[in-house]
Specification:
single chain, about 170 residues, Glutaredoxin, five-stranded mixed β-sheet, two-stranded antiparallel ribbon
Length: about 170
């Protein structure tokens, strides 16, 4: 019984957000990866357009698949201001064909890069999926979120608005 309690507490630790406020967590590690569907994407080039939410995920990860549609909505809402979301797939080559089917079923049009050897994930010290990083245009990590629970996207939106120098929404002003 005690083992189950310890496992439960550890599970909660891994799904709670790692940061509760916008901070400077250090410089982001640049990378260049292949895009699902062709081409390449380099993080530093994406940051020239605006802040980036980098989301490490996989098709076999249920919380990851729950988070991405929320991130798509944030992308759609703030893309005109330069905000971007980059999905970093941790799927191995055998699982990669599932990416397209999942994106199509959820109507996702976010760029998805392939990190099948998990080299980028290791550089970013990703140990749990999903793990997301909000990065400002200067290339600094401003927030890290480990796991996903409904409601995280509202907190994330406040930070996105702050990085875009937008006024808080009426709900955020309380």
């Amino acid at each position: 019984m005690r083992t189950f309690l310890i496992i439960g507490v550890l599970a909660l630790f891994f799904v709670l957000p790692a940061q509760a406020e916008l901070q400077d967590l250090g410089p982001a590690n640049d990378f260049k990866l292949k895009l699902y569907g062709g081409g390449n994407l380099q993080l530093s080039k994406a940051l020239e357009k605006g802040p980036v939410l980098l989301d490490f995920w996989a098709t076999w990860c249920a919380p990851c698949k729950k988070a991405l549609p929320h991130y798509q909505k944030l992308y759609e809402k703030y893309a005109e201001q330069g905000f971007q979301v980059i999905a970093v797939s941790q799927d191995d080559p055998r699982s990669q064909p599932k990416i397209g089917a999942f994106f199509k079923s959820q109507k996702l049009d976010l760029p998805c890069v392939l990190d099948s050897d998990k080299q980028v994930g290791r550089k970013w010290r990703v140990q749990v999926l999903p793990t997301s990083f909000l990065i400002d245009t200067e290339g600094n990590i401003r927030m890290q979120q480990v796991g996903f629970i409904d409601g995280h996207e509202r907190e994330l939106e406040k930070y996105i608005r702050e990085l875009l120098n937008l006024e808080p929404e009426a709900d955020d002003a309380r």
